[in-house]
Structures are given as C-alpha cells and as structure tokens.
Amino acid sequence: MSVEFRVKNKKRPLFMGYSDAMSVSKALDLLPDLSVFGIDESAEDFDERAFLKSPLSEYECLILGVRGKSGRGMELRYDEEQQSYAVRVNTPATIFDWVLAISYLQALSKQLGSEIAGEDGEIYTHDTIEEFDYERDIAAGLHSIDQHLSGDTEVNFCYGVERPFAINRAIMDEILASYNPAAEFSKRLTEMQYLDAYSAHQRFYRNGNDGTIMGSCALTQDLPTILPYKPFVEWQNAEMLKNSDVARWQIALIGIEGDENDAGNYRAIAELEYGEFIARLPKQNYRFIDASYILVDGLSAEQLKALAS
Questions:
Q1: Can you tell me whether residue 103 is helix, strand or coil?
Q2: Number of Cβ within a 10 Å radius of residue 199
C-alpha cells in the first residue's frame, strides 16, 4: 500500500509544451540534506557527475531521504505521459518520512507554481498540504500488518532505505501497546536502517553433481554482520528464486592474514551448514534485531576457528 501525490510540471510560454524534467541534482536541491538511496555509488561504472546531471525521466523512480533520519524514504518519479512529478509514500511510513514528503511537496509546488493532487482527487496548495492526515495513514498501515499477522502470515517485512524490518506477532503487539504506536514503529524501523554493521549478501550456486541450488553468505573476521537467523531468499533475489528452489544453505567463515586493509589477505577458514553454524554460535555473540535477523559481533580469528572445529 502507498499514497501518491502529483504536481504538474511548469508549462513553457507560447504553447511550447512543458518544461523538461528537472535533473537529479535539481530535485535534490529542493530541500537540504537530501540523498538518493538504493544507488551503488561504489560500482566501477558509476559516474556521480553524470548521474546528478541526468533527468528524472530516465528513471522508473528514485528513493529520496535524509541519511540517519529517513526510515522508508519517499519515491520520486517523473510521469512523461501526465507531465507531472509523482511523490509516493509507503504505508506505513515513519513520521519523519511523512514530514519530509510533505515538505518536499510544498517545495515542489512553489517551484512549479502548481497545485498538489492527491490520488483520491483532493487538491492541495503548498499551504493546505500540511492538513493531510498522515497519522491516519500510518495507523491504517499498522492495522493492516496486525491483520496479516493475525492470519497465516508469521512475519511481515517493511522495506526501509537500507534494509527490511521484519515484524512478527510479538513485535507488533509491543508496537500497538505503546503510548504512541506510530512513533514506536517509526523509531524501531529507523533504528534498523542505521545499525553499525554489514548486511551479508546472498549468493547462489548450482551443484555440479545433482543440479541442486545452494545458497551461501559470509561472516568475516572482526566485522559485525547482520544475518538471517533462518536463511531465506531475500527480496533482492525473489524474482529469480523461491525458498523451495534452494536445497541447502551454507556460510563461509572468512579470516584475515596480515593487513586487514589488503583484500588479498582474506582467506576462508571453513564453510559450515547454516543450521550448524547457528547451533554453534554462542548466544553472547549475537542479538536479535527484529523477527528474522540477528546482529553477530565482529568475531576474532580464534572465535571463527572455534566455530569451525
């Protein structure tokens, strides 16, 4: 679920159509401290200057937010058919996400001299958009999650700017029992985004002997790492694989020899079946951060070797 607003682009004079879609840089300049999430800036072929100069119309959407504060962010896209900018907020979003989105719509409305159209047909000005009852939308989203968890769903995932927040029945009950459920949900989801830890990446291999698919991830020496307690195909890979496609899961324990800044000195200490790894992992070396994920301490080489033995 989500809520979308549209702001019509500015028209050129003398029946010359609409102005070109603004660049990524100009879109970010509408409010201070805005960043784009979900872009791999470390990729070898990423050209930051070209990206910032490119028009919004080149992208399906961009996820904008403020680092350290945004929980789910907001989606911005340019609809060439409608010649309008669309701002979408997920349901439920955090309180900060909504405050930022409304501020952005105000800035966009002023910049373009256009009204703000809600998906329900309601029209707002840059002043009246502040009257939008976003707390009601957050409450509706929490109610929807509550209903899902009352049925066959064991875990509900809310996808944030950096990582998902997995909610089960116990976590949902705690959120709803708080003095301000919207604020409690916002706090928990946002904290998940900015944990000082590495989120392990999943890789998949096909067994040459029997053709079955194996899932794998890694735990590296001295690196606090977020891992699923019970492995499953995460959303990034869900289009190509189902959980039932993966015959078994493993985890590689990676040690460091010499200078830890030299990637060439990383070496595999052992590879364990994932369930065996969890069974061997001392409880004092990890903690649950939500219903599905654990944060494992940065383990020393000796601790990794102990797990392997």
A1: helix
A2: 15
CB crowding 164-177: b at 16 or more within 10 Å, else e: bbbbeeebbeebee
Are 268 and 237 within 8 A, CB to CB?
no
CATH number for region 2-130: 3.30.1400
- Strand segments, DSSP code E, in 177-223 are 198-199, 203-206, 213-220
Torsion angles phi and psi, residue 13, rounded to 5? -70, 165
Q: 107-142 pLDDT, tens per residue? A: 999 999 899 999 988 898 989 999 999 999 999 999
At residue 120, the pLDDT reads 86
**What pairs with residue 123 in β-bridges?**
117
Half-sphere exposure of 289 (CA within 13 A, CB side): 25
**Which residue in this structure is represented by tokens 């289009």?**
239
Query: pTM higher than 0.85 for the full model?
Result: yes
What tens digit of pLDDT does each residue of 202-260 get? 898 887 777 788 889 999 999 999 999 999 888 777 777 788 788 889 999 999 876 55
Domain ranges of the chain: 2-130, 135-193, 198-308
What's the rounded Cα separation, in Å, for the pair 176 and 197?
28
Predicted pLDDT of residue 5: 96
Distance CA 199, CA 148 (A): 27
